[in-house]
């Protein structure tokens, strides 16, 4: 699942989108509440994406390669 | 050298577990400051960026083998600030930076009065603290260590400012011009503050590194009149240059409106920008129109004094 | 927070200071009843939070209860400086021998409360201090040590007052000093405190202003005076539509602080500026270079993208504003990239080209590398700290007003 706002895009690789534990964890770490943990997995709150502060905490909380934060103003360059 | 703090100054953070205080702790540690502990009631045993947290200053002092820290940065909410500062003063702490805003005036007056009696000095409230470039910073002044390093380089000019942000703007201008900063103090923008320009002047006067002073000021209050009087009475070796913001508030259409800090309220005609500028200039303190004019004027004034 | 006279008198009375047997009402018929109870001549006084009510006809004398009713009816309808009266105070007309002034204020330079006393009461104390300085006594007192009556006595004696007046006024000024501290006042003034022909002293008018920062711990008093929470801090200032819009954006989330003002500004240069000191500096710099700002604003703390966007939208919604200048002194807490996102977003959502709409962007400091990348992408003119606030303001004036002219 990938969602793009104006400046930032957020991606959760499809194999992780139905992991409720990951959803809850991402929900907890992201300071601007971009990720939402649902009963069935992970959701991305489109309205919050542009508030991303590029802190990288979501990368730290998720398995390697599970999430990506993309800077759309830099040709979609990934934060990591 | 520097004023108020140096490389050996130890200090604590009261209210260390608050969100802003956690950032401030990180910034100060990265900059090289010696933070020897933090206090948040009920949080004993925690750590913030490796700094141990205690319930009371007494515990902290005991943990440090009875050594009382030199200073404290107070970041507790307004209702508890007076008590926190009293705790620090009773413990024997001598340099206190109060970051908290919106503290009732009665409490500020009481803290300042007790500090006077204890031979301690309060900076603030509602300020970002102070920085000795390349040595230490006490408070959020200049922001993260790497940002502070860009704006503040060691040098010869002492800076005092009622606005925290403008302390950095002015210091950065001095740094870019090769003059640098000896110590920069964000003194706070409230109606009553612990340390006014005139009260800090003797410290700068005694600091060999400092060769000139730059102040940032605003309408409101009588601090500039006090500085002018001090300059006239003390035959200071230091040239002072002032920048005054908020001149537009003198206009008729702006009457009755409030801008900026709590202290920036014009209560009488002596408080207005025009009146203050006249008073400063009368005391031989030039008031520049633009911040970018400051470095050249500082250089000229220093040259004038050394030639004399 | 300012108090109406009837509330200020109540505060004084609670502190044990003698007041006249007045009554407050919002109803002309009741004014008649109060005047009848008082018996004899009365004064009907408009209750407004503004000065100059005497001149405006908001104070009238009545000999009979009927007259009191008629005056009350008039005064209740009378707007003073745009303020509707809260009600009227019906006061017995006092048999005054002499009027005195007493007040307590904060002295920011001395960092202590200051008592003032004069035997020339009933007029503005500033005027007395200027014209008859020898008739004004002053004295600071401690916020730590217990207050003692002699401190008040010294101040009164300093004004050249002795005899019975000195003895009678001393405990009154002492109580005023105490209530000033106890109630977190910024100003506590009794003007006049009157000596009556029978030798007693009584407060004929009182002004009280409480510090907003102290209101939290003065809830009991505020409640006892019957002031509801909905009155807030009673700012008499009437915000403009723009100012209200910005307040609403600011209240929507807790990150950072934004403020906007436009009363007194009528130009076309939209200003997105900050923080406290930087905003004052930049507003001066724009005006001194011939610019006419459409507004004043402050960005403080670390606002969200939504907040910066909301402020920019509110400024762009103002009549005549086509372009904005986004400028701050070097930031260390506010983030350059977040503000950049916010203002660009505002342009895009309003269907405007950011490169055209944002005349200049001058915010150096935290996260500037990231911010500059965003500004590059949208083709916006920006500068770093090597361009002074003055120069940036000058460019804004040239780009916005130069084209319009
Ligand atoms: S980088 Fe930080 S703010 Fe951005 S999505 Fe990840 S956790 Fe949230």
TrEMBL record, chain A:
Domain called 4Fe-4S ferredoxin-type: residue spans:
40-72
Q: Which InterPro entries match?
A: 4Fe4S_Fe-S-bd
Q: What is this protein called?
A: 4Fe-4S ferredoxin-type domain-containing protein
> What taxonomic ancestry is recorded?
Bacteria, Bacillati, Actinomycetota, Thermoleophilia, Solirubrobacterales
From TrEMBL, chain B:
The answer to keyword Ligase applying to this record is yes
User: Which top-rank group of organisms is this from?
Assistant: Bacteria
UniProt KW keywords: Ligase, Nucleotide-binding
- Keyword Ligase belongs to the record: yes
- Which residues are in the CoA-binding domain? 4-103
- Kindly provide the name given to this protein in its UniProt entry: CoA-binding protein
**Organism field:** Paraconexibacter antarcticus
UniProtKB/TrEMBL annotation, chain C:
Pfam families in UniProt = ATP-grasp_2
* Listed GO MF terms: ligase activity
Give the UniProt keywords, A-Z. ATP-binding, Ligase, Nucleotide-binding
Taxonomy, superkingdom: Bacteria
Give start and end of each ATP-grasp domain. Answer: 9-226
Protein name, per record: Acetate--CoA ligase family protein
In which organism is this protein found? Answer: Paraconexibacter antarcticus
């Amino acid at each position: 699942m990938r969602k793009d706002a104006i400046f930032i895009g957020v991606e959760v690789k499809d194999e992780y989108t139905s992991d409720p534990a990951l959803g809850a964890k991402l929900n907890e770490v992201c300071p601007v509440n971009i990720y939402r943990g649902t009963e069935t997995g992970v959701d991305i709150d489109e309205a919050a994406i542009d508030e991303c502060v590029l802190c990288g905490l979501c990368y730290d909380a998720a398995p390697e390669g599970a999430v990506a934060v993309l800077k759309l103003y830099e040709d979609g360059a990934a934060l990591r | 050298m520097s004023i108020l703090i140096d490389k050996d100054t130890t200090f604590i953070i009261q209210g260390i577990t608050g969100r802003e205080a956690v950032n401030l702790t990180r910034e100060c540690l990265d900059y090289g400051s010696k933070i020897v502990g933090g206090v948040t009631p009920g949080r004993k045993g925690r750590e913030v960026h490796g700094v141990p947290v205690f319930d009371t200053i007494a515990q902290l002092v005991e943990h440090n083998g009875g050594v009382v820290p030199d200073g404290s940065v107070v970041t507790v909410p307004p209702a508890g600030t007076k008590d926190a500062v009293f705790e620090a003063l009773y413990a024997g702490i001598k340099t206190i930076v109060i970051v908290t805003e919106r503290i009732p005036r009665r409490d500020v007056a009481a803290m300042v009065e007790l500090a006077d009696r204890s031979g301690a000095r309060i900076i603030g409230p509602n300020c970002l603290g102070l920085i000795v470039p390349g040595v230490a910073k006490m408070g959020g002044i200049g922001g993260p260590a790497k940002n502070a390093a860009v704006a503040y380089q060691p040098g010869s000019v002492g800076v005092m400012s009622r606005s925290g942000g403008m302390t950095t703007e002015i210091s950065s201008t001095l740094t870019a011009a090769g003059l640098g900063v000896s110590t920069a103090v964000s003194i706070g923008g409230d109606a009553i503050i612990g340390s006014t320009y005139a009260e800090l002047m003797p410290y700068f006067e005694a600091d060999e590194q400092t060769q000139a002073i730059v102040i940032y000021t605003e309408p409101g209050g009588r601090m500039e009149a006090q500085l002018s009087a001090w300059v006239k009475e003390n035959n200071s070796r230091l040239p002072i240059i002032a920048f005054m913001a908020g001149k537009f508030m003198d206009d008729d259409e702006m009457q009755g409106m409030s801008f900026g800090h709590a202290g920036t309220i014009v209560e009488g005609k002596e408080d207005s920008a025009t009146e203050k500028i006249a008073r400063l200039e009368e005391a031989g303190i030039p008031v520049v129109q633009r911040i970018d004019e400051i470095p050249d004027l500082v250089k000229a004034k220093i040259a004038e004094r050394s030639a004399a | 927070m300012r108090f109406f006279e009837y509330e200020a008198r109540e505060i004084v009375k609670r502190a044990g200071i003698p007041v006249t047997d007045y009554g407050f009402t919002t109803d002309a018929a009741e004014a008649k009843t109060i005047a009848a109870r008082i018996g004899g001549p009365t004064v009907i006084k408009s209750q407004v939070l503004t000065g100059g009510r005497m001149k405006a006809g908001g104070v009238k004398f009545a000999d009979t209860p009927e007259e009191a009713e008629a005056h009350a009816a008039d005064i209740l309808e009378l707007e003073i400086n745009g303020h509707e009266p809260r009600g009227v105070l019906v006061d017995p007309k006092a048999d005054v021998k002499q009027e005195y002034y007493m007040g307590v204020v904060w002295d920011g330079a001395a960092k202590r409360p200051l008592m003032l006393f004069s035997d020339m009461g009933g007029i503005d104390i500033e005027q007395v201090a200027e014209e008859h300085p020898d008739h004004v006594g002053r004295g600071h007192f401690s916020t730590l040590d217990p207050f003692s009556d002699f401190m008040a006595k010294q101040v009164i004696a300093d004004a050249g007052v002795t005899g019975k007046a000195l003895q009678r006024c001393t405990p009154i000024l002492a109580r005023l000093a105490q209530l000033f501290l106890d109630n977190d006042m910024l100003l506590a003034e009794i003007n006049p405190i009157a000596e009556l022909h029978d030798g007693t002293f009584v407060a004929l008018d009182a002004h009280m202003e409480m510090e907003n920062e102290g209101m939290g711990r003065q809830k009991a008093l505020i409640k006892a005076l019957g002031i509801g929470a909905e009155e807030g801090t009673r700012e008499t200032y009437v915000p403009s539509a723009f100012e209200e819009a910005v307040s609403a954006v600011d209240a929507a989330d807790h990150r950072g602080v934004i403020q906007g003002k436009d009363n007194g500004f009528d130009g076309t240069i939209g200003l997105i500026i900050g923080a406290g000191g930087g905003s004052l500096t930049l507003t001066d710099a724009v005006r001194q270079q011939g610019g006419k700002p459409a507004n004043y604003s402050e960005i403080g703390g670390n606002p969200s993208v939504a907040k910066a966007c909301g402020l920019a939208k509110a400024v762009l919604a103002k009549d005549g504003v086509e372009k904005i200048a986004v400028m701050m002194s070097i930031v260390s807490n506010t983030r350059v990239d977040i503000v950049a996102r916010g203002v660009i977003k505002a342009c895009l959502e309003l269907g405007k080209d950011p490169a055209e709409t944002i005349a200049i962007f001058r915010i150096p400091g935290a996260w500037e590398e990231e911010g500059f990348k965003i500004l590059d992408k949208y083709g916006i003119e920006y500068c770093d700290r090597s361009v002074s606030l003055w120069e940036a303001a000058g460019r804004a004036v040239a780009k916005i007003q130069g084209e319009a002219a």
